[in-house]
Structures are given as C-alpha cells and as structure tokens.
Amino acid sequence: MAISGLVLTLSDDDAADSALAVLSMDPRLTLGERFGRKLAVVAETPGVESDRQLWDDLSRTPGITHVDITYVHLDQVPVTGGAGPSPSEKTHADR
Amino acid sequence: MQTVDRRTFVKASAMAAATAAAAGGARAFSLPVLDEPPAASGLKWQKAPCRFCGTGCHVMVGTENGRVVAIQGDQKAEVNKGLLCVKGYHVGLALYGKDRLTTPLLRRDGVLSPISWEEAIDIVAKRIAANPKGFSFYGSGQWTIPEGYAANKFVKAGLGTNLIDANPRLCMASAVTGFISTFGVDEPPGVYDDIEACDVAIMWGNNMAEMHPVLFSRLVDRRSRGEKVTIIDLTTRRTRTSDLADHVLFFKPNGDLALANGIAHILIKSGKYDRAFVEAHCNFRQLGESPDGKTAPDMLGMPMTFEQFARAVEPYTPEKVEELSGVAAEKVRMLGEMFCRRDVRINSFWCMGFNQHTRGTAINCIVHGIHLLSGHFGKPGDAATSLTGQPSACGTAREVGTLCHLLPGGLAVVNPDHRQIAEEYWNVPAGRLSGTIGLHAVELFKRFNTPTDQGGDITTIWVQVTNPGQTMPNLNRNFRQKKNLADKFLIVSDVYPTATTELADLILPSAMWVEKNGMYGNSERRTHQWFKMVPPPGQARDDCWQTIAVSKRMLDLGFEGMKDKDGKWLFRTADESGREVPIWDWDRFYDVNVDERLFNEYRKFSRHKHKDLAPYSEYVKARGLRWPVVQQADGSWKETRWRFSGFDDPYVAKGKDFQFYHSVTKDDKALIWFRPHEFPPEMPDAEFPFWLCTGRVLEHWHTGTMTRRIPQLHRAMPRAYVEMHADDAAAMGVRNNEVVTIRSRRGEIDLPVWIGGRGAPQRGDLFVPFFDETKLINLVTLDAYDPYSKQPDYKKCAVAVVRKA
C-alpha cells in the first residue's frame, strides 16, 4: 500500500474543469479542498510502482500543470524492484 | 480492525498535509506539521535526526516488522518544529533502493566477487599493517560521532599518523579557518533562534530555499504571522530564494570580497560603526608577508591599528565596489547603511558560496568582521551564521576532529600539549601521536593517483560514508588515474554502488542511518542521538564495527600500535562486571552500547575548548543539545545558545557583556580582518568564455546516491542539466534541452541546456548541479584551493559551451 498526499496545481483555463471531472472518477484518488488553483488530493495505490504510474498519469492530464508531494507513507514497500532510478537512468550497479 | 484504523489515520494525515500545503502555498520548500502519531496506528515510533543535510531536523520514524514504514516531522524538535522538506519526508525510502550492497566484494582480475567478512577484514588489516604510513582513512560529515571517533583513534592513536581526512574539507573547511582566525576557536557563536529574532536576513550566495528549506521556511513563516523580515539575496544567479527576497543583488563571480569590504568602508566613512563595541572587544588584523614569496603568509596574521584598517578599506567606495562586483553603487550603499543602523538586527547566512572559494577563509573573516565592526553580533537576531551541508560536518569532522590537522575537541596535532592530553585520554605511550599534519583531501587523492615511485606515497585509502569518485574536483587527475596504478588499493564502505565503488578493490557493505545506533552534530552546535530501529540488509554491518574489527585483527597480527601503554587493546570494552565484551565479533557488537562507550570517552576532550558535551544519557532524552552543555547546581544539564555573550554563555566571566575566551590575541578580543579583493586563479578568456558554478538542488542530497534511489525524488529531478542565460543561448543558437558539451582545460561533459529553468544565471555564467553520477561535472572543475583551509573552489572556473555536430 502506498498513500501519498499531493497538491495539484490546476491550469487557469477551462481544462481545469475537465481535469476535475477526470480526477473525481479516479478510484485511486480522494479529492480534498481547493484553494484557488491548488487542489489537495490523497492517492492510494497498491505499491510504489503503481504510485509512480499514478504520478505519470496526473502529470499528463490536461488541466494539471504541476504535481507536488506533501506526504508519503511507505507501508510494505518491497525490498527489491520498487525503488531506484528508472531504467533509462542507469546507476553503477546497472553497468 | 487495526489495519483499517491505521489506513484511515494515514489517509487523514496525508490529506491534512496536502490541505495545509495547498492552503499555505508551501510548495517548494517545506511541508506542514502533522498531528502526533497515535498509538493506535500500530507502528513503533522513535526519534532520529534526518539522514540528509546539516540542518539537523528531527523525524519520527515509524517501524513495523523490521522495516521503516512511515516518517513524520517531529513536533518536539526545536530545529524543525514538525516541518520537513521533501527529502526529509522521503528519508525512509533511502534504505530500500533495489541495489543495496549486502556482501563484501573483492575485485579479482577486474571482476568483483563475494567474499566473507572474515576474509575482508583480514585483507584490510594486513594491507594497513604492512605500510601504515601509506594508508589513509577518508570519511565525511556523514560519519556518526562514534564512527568518526573510532576512525580517528584508529589512525592517530593506533597507527601513530595523522593520515585521515574527510569530505568537510571540500565543504566546510573555510568556515573553520574563518572562525579560528576571528574568534580563536571553531563553530558559530549564534544559533537558529536568530532566524526568528532578526529583522534583516542576508543570504550571501546562499540558496537557503533549496539547500536548507526548513530554515528558510522558519524565516518566511514569520511573514505569514504578520512580522516584517527583510530578505536580501546576494547571488550570482536567480534562485528560489531570490523569488521571496525583498532585494536581489546580483554580483559577479568572486565579487563578494569587494562587496563586504565596501560595507566596512561605509561603516567607517560614515562614522556609524559601533565604536564602543569595537574598542572594548576587537583588535584589527592583516596578513603579513609570505616567508618565501611562495608560501601563504601565516593564517593568524599580524596586528594593524584601526587607522590602518580604515586606510585599507578606503579604496572600497561604492563606485569601486560596483566596478569589482557588478552590484550597483546605490545598492552597495543600501547594504552598508543597513549595517549602520542600530534599530535592526541582522543575520547573515552562508554555506558553500563562501566556503568553496579560493578566498574562502578571507570572505568568512570579512563577514565576521563587518558584524563585529557594526556591533551586529552576539544578541538574538544579530549573528553571522555559517550553515553546513552534511548531517554531522560539525559534530564529527570538526568536533571529533577527523581531519588531518586535528585531535578531538578542537585540539591540534601540532600542539605538544594537546598531543599529551590525547595520549593521556587514550592511554598510549608518550610520543605515540604524530605532530606532523597529515594530507588534506585534495593532496591525499593526488598522491593516491600518482605512481608510487613518483611521489605517490599513499597506496591504500579506506573510504567510508562518502563518494570522492563524484566529488573530487578535476576527477580525471584526482581520482581516475588510480585505474592505471596496479599497486594502489581502494577500500570503500558504502550502502550503494557509486562512482567511488566503481574503482574500488574491496567493497564493504554498510548499515545506514536507523539500521545502527548513531549521533550527529548539526550547524548550530546541536548534538543528536538515535537508536538502531531496523536490521541492515544481508551482511551489511556498521562502519564503526568495521573499523573496530580491523583494529582487533591488526592486534591479533601483532601490530603494537593497537595496544595502549598497559598492553590492552585500544578499543577494549568491558561489561559492568569488568569482563571484556568481544565487540569485534559482529554477533556480539550490540551486547553493549558501543556508541555510548565511545561517546563518553570522547566527551572528555570536549572541555578543553569549552565545547562541553553532556553524558550520552542526556542526549537519549533530548531532541539534541547545543554545546557547551554545562551541569547545573541541581545536577541538570543546560545547553548554551549564544556563545561569548554574557547573558547566556556560562564561560563568560560574571559582569562581562562579551568575552572571546579563546582569543587569538589572548586578550579576550575578537579579530576584525582586512583581506583585499583579489582575482581568482582561473577566469574566462577567449577559449573558455563562461564562468561555471556547481551546486545542489532541492530534491537531491549531495551526490544523489540515496535520493536518486527514491522514486518520488528521482522523478521530480531525474538528471543534471546546465542552466544558461537566454541571451547567451540565443547568441550561440542553442535551444532549450539541446545537449551541449561543457569543456574546460581539465575535461568535458555533455549536458542538456535548461533556459529559464529553476535557476537563472547571469549572462556569461553557467550552473550545473553535481548530484548526477551519470553526468559528472567534476570532470570539468578546477582543483585550486584556499591556501589556509585547503578547500577547493567548485563555484568558479572557466569553461566553453560547445554545440555538438
């Protein structure tokens, strides 16, 4: 289980409303209060990989201009395979 | 039921954090305070300082089934008051990268193969015993205090050499020489409380918003409470700190000395310096002549009168300062007039901008000097504050003295009386300790990377808790030559594969942070303690154990230096009945609290320079204590906030407002130095027309070996880049994200260009962060260093930008 607190920055055009509609349908998300362009969100996913996928999804959603992390819960993070640089960013261990 | 409760609690905490951040616009530097973790969460919560920077924030670490599963800001901690930056919130994940080192590895015929710990310890012990004068330890401010103390004792008492140095040489050494030159003793007089008490905060080349975000948050939070605090950002490039500053004064690289001298000029010319304070508490100082025309003059200099000082700063008129620094004369006047005021309290802050500077000692001294000259010193809010980059740069490197010229407690290897004190505490024969200063970091690695028959007399280095394969300046010369030198042997204790382990002959897997007991000391003289909470993975073991096990193996091999003068092992540890505990045996290492034994031995040293530490048990109870920690009549222990100030420092004689009791001039006075502006050793020219500055980013700590393995941080800042001014890019036809070659006289590296990114350099300047092991900017940097601190300048060298075909 990975639980993150996020702040989404919405765009200042009509796309923000579309984004809100998409977000409200996403079962991984609990939407909180909105302060201007800032929206508080809690994300719950099965693990780090899916948390990362969610991040990518949010970052690509029209009407969302920025995603900030404010809280992370690490419960049951796997020892291997979860953390670490992406495959395109090799570390010395990968060489 | 418990799982549901905890999930609900975690989600509520996450929402509270997100809501507070969204409401407060806290993005980019801090995160909000969370509620106390309830017992019902089912986790075990314990305190620890954050693993990363020198701020010294405390976190509450939630563990379950031998794993760290949650992190919260510690509301009981005075440093961070429950706040954490984005790195701190993710610190728990630093333990769980997929490629943790879990077994000793020996390189045979170029290939790393697993070996047993017994074999590894034997190899290290025999290698050192065979040539102790060709061996050096190299550590860092990431060593815990007991780890650093054990390594220091191993080298200085055990081997009888001073061949130990540490990464703070690359990080904080100029701050040390600045403090010693000014006050006769290291470390800041002030504390973080000054942040809440100042009216004006001056950032001297210090991007506090990204590098010490929790401290910056403490500062800007005052505005949200309706308080007025003026932030002045003196910088070579626009940063997130600039975004919240009232005044942003851009200066040319190396322009800082002129600017600070310009403030002294205005204070004296206007007659508004604090005459009473200066006459009562200060002497003036300047450098003497070089003894041979080559060697730098003595660091402690020679006296000068006030009149001579006034004449020395006379040329630094605002107009002249504008010419030298690029800061408009009217802005120089604004700054000088600020220091002339008695109705405001001024706190200066600096970090690597001053310290990684071939004139690092000089600029540290000048800024202390303008605070003394103006009387903006020693009162809450009136302070000159040097910040540190590593979690225990102060606590371990500077206080324990894991540097080639120091003994524990600020004592010096060249002082026979100090050596005698150390020999008594360590119970070694008189004359065991060497009075010859060892090799500082750059010279150490130069010798290691030089053929032995050509003066490269260092043949074995044992690196713990740091990554010189990424941080040494001019890596081609100072690290990579080793690859071609068959008789050199590099031992590296670390938690992940790094640019240093890439060339290691022997790799020892280490425990990290809450996988072991530990103590750190932060930037404000605060000593922290924590307990081991989870086991290290695989066969990873404490660095401290590794040092002790090698010492025991050397003892068994008959190496006399590992015995004290009574014939007992230097690290002999007994239980309460006096029976020896075999702490060299990993299975028995935690039978006693080795940290406590080492710390209580070390703290005896701390009293000689009035850096008194309390017994270990006091730190168990506290969220850190700031030294000197002095026992009161009722038996309690009291920390000290403002050193040298009569209202708070117990070592100031009764009735005195101030007393600099380690004064260089032995008259209880501090020194105000004149140090002139000088040009740096390398400047842009026709072939290399740009200035290069290197540094850090918010998401990554140091060389990124931990933070790049934390997905949330890595994806936020995945790779290094070069910041370039839009006009420079346009003049070359370079587009955003285009990959260019950054080339210097020493090396080159390809990087994508970022125009209008997080930071914005001035025309002719470039900035590259150093966290990315796949893009080593230190292949390019210059290894020239300050003549006193021996700290290299990572902020200024000349480079070219070359478009790729």
Summarize the SSE layout with pairings.
The complex is a heterodimer of chains A (95) and B (805).
Chain A: E1 2-10, H1 15-25, E2 29-35, E3 38-45, H2 48-60, E4 64-73
Antiparallel strand pairs in A: 1-3, 1-4, 2-3
Chain B: H1 2-24, E1 44-49, E2 58-64, E3 67-73, H2 86-89, E4 105-108, E5 111-114, H3 117-130, E6 135-139, H4 145-159, E7 164-166, H5 173-183, H6 193-197, E8 200-204, H7 208-211, H8 213-224, E9 230-235, E10 237-238, H9 240-243, E11 247-250, H10 256-269, H11 275-281, E12 282-286, E13 302-304, H12 306-313, H13 318-325, H14 329-340, E14 346-350, H15 352-355, H16 360-374, E15 383-386, H17 393-401, E16 406-407, E17 411-412, H18 416-426, H19 441-448, E18 460-464, H20 468-471, H21 475-478, E19 489-494, E20 506-509, E21 518-521, E22 526-530, H22 543-556, H23 594-602, H24 616-621, E23 625-626, E24 630-631, E25 637-638, E26 670-673, E27 690-695, H25 711-716, E28 722-724, H26 726-732, E29 739-743, E30 748-755, E31 760-761, E32 765-769, E33 797-803
Parallel strand pairs in B: 6-7, 6-18, 8-9, 8-14, 9-11, 12-26, 14-15, 18-19, 19-20, 27-32, 28-30
Antiparallel strand pairs in B: 1-2, 2-3, 4-5, 4-20, 10-31, 12-13, 16-17, 21-22, 22-23, 24-25, 27-33, 28-32, 29-30, 29-33
Helix pairs in contact in B: 3-22, 4-17, 4-22, 4-23, 5-16, 10-13, 10-14, 10-16, 13-14
